[in-house]
Amino acid sequence: MPDKIRKPERETPRKEKICTRCGRSFAWRKKWEKDWDVIRYCSDACRGEKASAVDAELEAAILELLAERGRDKTICPSEVAKLVGGRATRHDWESLMEPARMAARRLVAAGKIVITQHGAVIDPSTAKGPIRLRLR
């Protein structure tokens, strides 16, 4: 467990961390100097939201769809949102698109999948536009 009190004789490494909630990477900031060891979230918004049952369901759905497709095949996050939210209308699953991308980033941080764009593996923290998910 990280120390809650900063030790003056030890220099805190200033490496990037992965947000526990959204899966994006974030860098060291001066304001976090004293408690960098215990920082887990990239923002107040992520700290305010806790993981829900839908988040776990989205992660499971990603892994399930990828296992069905095969080793080198990819899926779109919208397929995951449709599986979890229902396909009746766009309104049913559209609100799950960003949570599906967050679930994908968490799975990338866990080392289970990779995110690709135009066939190339990309950094999930900086991905913009359409992405595809593939097993590692």
Oligomer: single chain
Backbone structural class: alpha+beta
Describe the largest sheet.
4 strands, antiparallel
Q: Give the N-terminus to C-terminus distance in angstroms.
A: 29 Å
Notes on the protein architecture:
This protein starts with 16 loop residues before the first strand and ends with a strand. It has 136 residues and is of the alpha+beta class. β1 and β2 form a beta hairpin. Strands 3-6-4-5 form a 4-stranded antiparallel β-sheet. The mean pLDDT is 86.
Could you give a quick summary of the protein structure above?
The chain is 36% helix and 12% strand.
Which descriptors would you attach to this protein?
136 residues; alpha+beta; 4-stranded antiparallel beta sheet; two-stranded antiparallel ribbon
Please describe the topology of this protein:
Blueprint: E1 17-18, E2 25-26, H1 44-48, H2 53-69, E3 74-75, H3 77-85, H4 90-94, H5 97-109, E4 113-117, E5 120-121, E6 132-135
Antiparallel strand pairs: 1-2, 3-6, 4-5, 4-6
